[in-house]
Structures are given as structure tokens and as C-alpha cells.
Design brief:
The complex is a heterodimer of chains A (192) and B (137). Helix content of chain A is 74%, strand content 1%. By secondary structure, chain A is mainly alpha-helical. Chain A has two domains: 100 residues, Orthogonal Bundle (Rna Polymerase Sigma Factor, Chain: A); 69 residues, Arc Repressor Mutant, subunit A (Orthogonal Bundle), CATH 1.10.10.10. In chain A, α3 packs across α8, α7 packs across α10 and α9 crosses α10. Classes of the chains: A mainly alpha (192), B mainly alpha (137). Chains A and B meet through α3, α4, α7, α8 and α10 of A and β1 and α1 of B.
Chain lengths: 192, 137
């Protein structure tokens, strides 16, 4: 992505991507990847599933790009991610119901270095803790603490008030703390 | 990006302990640039056909004249064949011009031109074979 793509806003990139501009579409993917991942992960059981859904959602979004209001691309994309994650979850539950052993194979690990193992363990600890949260709390937590959205943006994306977004975040953090202890929590000063 | 956007955490009467941000960076798929590049490349590969389709519909298809030719020339040749046959039946054809040469001159495929001088007409299979041979040249 060169400077011109970075300077364009989503709306301009959407218009170019509609005309088949691959660089514009790539810029949209890079900009919105983490938010899409956060939404998918809030609904699915692991990052691999979440990334599969994100990949699928971006391609579907491109196919339906003419239906999108260019100024609201991010919210529109996250709705697609949410729906596809929901469908994937239903599919996965059905699959596990039919063949739980086969479903368990996807979590088997490869030979990994020590650093990678530690990161994987940390990821799995976080995932397990996030799994204990109600879905709305997962989504608010991931959008706020992973993607870095503000409550006003989260409220618009998730469909709750700003006050409820704050409430859900607070509840999610309390619960995460109870699950994780102080290990994975990072206390910020009053400056931010 | 995430860390510098949490300035709206402070609000109401929630205690500071409740504001502690959970460090979820281990889950961040964009943290490792190589991983993000790989994920983006997969998406772009999946999107390649749709992007090409959109680009083609916007800029026009370079192969369109050729596609047009594949449809129009055989149709024109068939019309010419029928017309020549009708002219000959009515004995109004120009006698000085050999039938085959005239057929070739108006674009009838070479494989079909000999039929012009005949009293019977080519069947569908002969027409199709003639067009295919012409197309293969």
C-alpha cells in the first residue's frame, strides 16, 4: 500500500474497489482486518476460525460492494463478519455434534519453538478466559481492548448505547480479571 | 493503535481497578507483519476473480471485438450463403463471377463456399464444422 492509498478514506477506497482496483481493496482489507477479526473472534472459539471467517467476509463484501454506502463501509463489513461468524458457529456446533473427535483435530499443535509455545499458551489462556464471557461482553471487550475502538464507535457497531458499552466493558474486564488474575492485565494510568 | 485510543475509559464512578485494560495483544493478528501480509495475500487471491470481473465491466473487455467477431461473422456468412443460393435459384446471379469466389468474397467460410454451387443446402453439422474450421485459422 503506497502513500496515496493511506491518505484516502474508506469511502474513496470503496469507490475505487468497486471498479476493480486491487490496491484500493487491499487497503480496505488492511485497515479493517483487526476490527473484523475482533468481531469474528467474539463469536467463534479460536483465532484460526475467526481468520477464516474474516477472509470469507472480505470476499463476500467485495462481491456485494455495490450494496454498501461507501461512508459506512466499516459498519457494513462488520455486519457481514458477524453474520458469517454466526453461521460458522452454527455449522461448527453441528459438525461437533456429528463427529466430536474430528472436530478436536483442528486444535492439535505442530512442532513449535519455545517462544511460539509461550505465545500460543498465552493466546489459549486469553481465549479460554474470553470464552467465559457473554457474547456482548466479548464483542465490546475485543473491539475496545484489541481493536481500540471508542465507546461511541462500539455503540454504533454493536447496537447498544454508549453507557451500555461502558457497562459491558467493565463487566467483561472484571470477569477477565477473575479468570486470569493479574497476569494478563495491564493497568493504565489516568492519562489513558 | 489500540493503546492510544483508550482515552474514553474514564467515566462516572467506576473505580480505577475496573478500568484496567486487558492486554489482548497476544491475540492481535496484525501484530506480526508477516502474518498480516500472508492473510491479506490469501484474501487478495480469493478476490482476484471478482476484482478482474469488476475491472472488465468498468474498462470494457479487451477481447470483446474478438468475441463479437465469433458471433457476427458466422451469422453474416450464413445469411450470405442463403442469399447467394436464393439469387442463383432465381437465376439472377452475376454469371461472370464463379459461385465459390463470390461466396468467399462476401465472407462465407472456405469450407462452406463449395455448397454455393450445389442445388442442395448444407446441413447444420456441415455449417458448424465449417465455422469451427474457420475459427481455428
Amino acid at each position: 500500500m503506497d502513500r496515496s492509498e493511506r491518505e484516502l478514506d474508506d469511502a474513496a477506497l470503496v469507490l475505487r474497489a468497486r471498479d476493480g482496483d486491487a490496491r484500493a481493496f487491499e487497503a480496505l482489507v488492511r485497515r479493517n482486518y483487526r476490527a473484523a477479526f475482533a468481531v469474528a473472534l467474539a463469536r467463534l472459539e479460536g483465532p484460526m476460525d475467526a481468520e477464516d471467517v474474516v477472509q470469507d467476509a472480505f470476499v463476500r463484501a467485495l462481491e456485494r460492494l455495490d450494496e454498501c454506502d461507501p461512508k459506512r463501509f466499516a459498519g457494513w463489513l462488520l455486519t457481514i463478519v458477524r453474520n458469517r461468524a454466526h453461521n460458522a458457529r452454527i455449522y461448527e456446533r453441528r459438525r461437533q455434534g456429528v463427529d466430536p473427535e474430528e472436530a478436536g483435530l483442528s486444535s492439535s499443535g505442530d512442532a513449535e519453538g519455545v517462544g511460539r509455545v509461550e505465545r500460543r499458551e498465552l493466546r489459549e489462556t486469553l481465549e479460554a478466559a474470553i470464552d467465559t464471557l457473554p457474547q456482548i461482553q466479548r464483542e465490546v471487550l475485543l473491539l475496545h481492548d484489541l481493536e481500540g475502538m471508542k465507546h461511541a464507535e462500539i455503540a454504533g457497531t454493536v447496537g447498544v448505547s454508549v453507557g451500555m458499552s461502558r457497562y459491558h466493558l467493565m463487566q467483561a474486564r472484571r470477569r477477565m480479571r477473575a479468570e486470569l488474575g493479574a497476569q494478563a492485565l495491564e493497568v493504565h494510568g489516568h492519562g489513558g | 493503535m489500540a493503546a492510544d485510543r483508550h482515552d474514553d475509559d474514564r467515566h462516572g464512578d467506576i473505580g480505577h481497578g475496573d478500568l484496567a485494560r486487558v492486554d489482548l495483544s497476544a491475540l492481535d493478528p496484525t501484530r506480526a507483519e508477516a502474518h498480516l501480509d500472508s492473510a491479506v495475500a490469501e484474501i487478495m487471491e480469493e478476490a482476484r476473480f471478482e476484482l478482474a470481473r469488476r475491472a472488465a465491466s468498468t474498462r470494457g473487455m479487451p477481447g470483446l471485438p474478438r468475441l463479437w467477431g465469433r458471433v457476427v461473422w458466422p451469422a453474416a456468412a450464413a445469411i450470405a450463403l442463403v442469399s447467394i443460393g436464393m439469387l442463383r435459384t432465381g437465376e439472377t446471379a452475376i454469371a461472370a463471377t464463379p459461385d465459390e469466389e463470390m461466396a468467399l468474397a462476401v465472407g462465407v467460410p472456405e469450407a462452406l463456399a463449395p455448397w454455393v454451387g450445389q442445388t442442395d443446402s448444407p446441413g447444420l453439422s456441415e455449417i458448424l464444422v465449417g465455422w469451427n474450421e474457420e475459427d481455428g485459422r
